[in-house]
Every structure is written in C-alpha cells, then in structure tokens.
Amino acid sequence: MQATDPPAKTTLPALAGWLRLQQTDHVGLLTAHRLLEHFKTPDAIFAASREALLGVARPRQADALLGAPPPGLDAQLDAMLAWQEQPGNLLLPFGHPAYPDYLRHIIGAPLLLFVKGRVQLLPQRSVAVVGARNASRQGLLNAERLAQALSEAGVTIVSGLALGIDAAAHAGGLNGAGGTIAVLGTGADRIYPARNGALARRIAEEGCIVSEYALGTPPSRDSFPRRNRIISGLARGVLVVEAAAQSGSLITARLAAEQGRDVYAVPGSIHATLSKGCHQLIRDGARLVESAADVLSALHMLAAAEAGARPALDDSFVDRVLAAMGDDPVQAEMLARHLGQSAAELQGQLLALELAGLLERLPGGMFQRLRG
After folding, report:
1. pTM, full prediction
2. Domains annotated on the chain, with CATH
3. pLDDT category, 311, cuts 50, 70, 90?
4. Is 85 within 8 Å of 54 (Cβ atoms)?
C-alpha cells in the first residue's frame, strides 16, 4: 500500500472477530494479546479447542472464549459499519496495516481503534502535550506556543481534548503543518467536555480523532486515565506544560517512561502549585524544556527544522527583519506587509529566527525580538 492510498475499510467478517474478542468476559487486553501472539487472529482463537486455549488462558477464560458471542454483538457491528461508512471514519483493528506501529508495541495496545479525520497523521513523528485542566493563563500560552512551533517544524501534537492545556495544545497543533491528534475518553461519536465541541469538529476536519471505546460510550472516572496510555503510546515523547503534584498528567508521563518514551517538562515558579508536578518530573530525570528547540533537539529534528526554515535567511535579511520588529510585539501579518513578502513564506523564516534564539513567539500570532 502506498502512503497516498486510503487505508482499506475493515469488513464485517474481520470486524466481528475483533469485537467479539474485545468483549469476551474475563479476557482482558493482556490475555487477548497473549492469545493473538499464539493463534495470530481472532478467528483462529475462537476456532481453537479448549485444550489449545488452556495452553495460553485460564480455564474460566477458555470457557468464555468457547461460549456464545456476547448478546447485542450483531447490533453493535451494524452500528460500527454504518459509522465507518461516514466520510473520514475508519475502524482499525490491531491487525490492520494502518494501525499505528508505535502504538502497536505498547503493553495493552487497544484491539480496536475508532479513527475520524486524517488517519495519515497516526504514523507521523509526534509529541504529546498535556497538563492541567485549570491551567494558568501563562500555562495556556506556553502550551499553544510550544505546540504551534513544534507543529510548524513537522511534529504532530497529541493530546486528550480536555479543558486547559490539552485544548491549547490542540489549537497550537492545528496552526502548523504537523496537525494534531485528539485521543478521547468517550466513544468517537461523543465529545467531552461539550465546551470543546467546536475544537473537536475542527480537529475532525483538519486533524484526527481517536478512541478505543465503543460508540456511544459516555465519560467515566476510569476511562480517562485508561486512555492516557494511548496518548503516550502514539507519541515519541510527552511534554508536561503545567501540572500540580497529584495531576493526572503525571500518569501520562509515567506511562511514557514505562513505554520507553522521552519525558519533557516546562519549569515554573517555585511558588506556583501548578509547577510542582513539572519540577518533580525534572528531578526524576525529565528533560527541562524552555522552547520548542529543546524538544526538537531531543527528537534529533533540530537541524532539519532549522534547515527547512532557512531559505533566503542571510545576515542582511535577518538584520532587516529584526529592525522591522523593533522592541514591541508585532503580528506576523503586519511584519510580512512591512517586508513585502507573503505571511506563509515569512512563517518559516520566523521559525528559524525563533530556533536561533533571536525572537520569541507570543500568543495571537505575535512575535517579539529578544536582545542579548
């Protein structure tokens, strides 16, 4: 399959086995993956003898696998196939070629993914950006600024569509070429919280929405910590922007470390409650992040980002841009008009200047010159 080809839709026979395995009583994800490693496919699992199953599963699990399919399975299959027929929707079982490889190798990888939007974002190099729901204004600005700078360098931003840092990170990711992926703690046909409805619709059109939960699944206390392993599992690293000492974001950071991902954290004031979690992560070995360049360097993408943002950046041009900026914040569009070039062309050049430490990105598309 070429990268430009749309992924194949999952057919009813293939989907039936995956859904039945997912919903078999007493068979959790760890057991399901042991069975798949041994028998290779769900159909082979359900066709196996009790004796063969007992070589991998406990007696109660083997009996459940040999029993009748769960009630309501056919109705669920019909609903899922109807959902998949809608534009942009795709069902990815664990064995599907388009199932993200990075996620495939985590402990407890989902058996089924509901995907809405740009499925081609799933295998891209990505960073999860997470943090407090009741974030400070500065935390929100930091999250959006960092996410946008990373996205402009080609990094896809992964987060959980929660209020606060998550929403700011998604907004920043949508403003760059890398885009954004939202991992839900509900069914893919439900948006929570409702206040992020407009953002979710934009992500479905321009980015990607992912859920492992059945259609119609409402929010619950357990679903959100559970989905955190998918947020970290899709990403090469997890960046915590703001977090209290007992923040749920620290769960995502811990999962990332267990999955072999990098962990990054933004420091803050020693007096700020929402900096305590980040400071703890840094003490425990997380990489301190002050700019997008710190993350790009850890991903070995800094040189490429600088090279990709460097066209026509000679010393005279740099001097002209910095002189046009003055000492006050200025909008990129206004600066582009002053310099007589397109805003799209200037964005790449401003990224190079940001990575070089010559200017700082501010909220609302503003930039400010940094003087040494």
Report:
1. 0.81
2. 12-117 (3.40.50.450), 119-303 (3.40.50.450), 309-369 (1.10.10.10)
3. very low
4. no
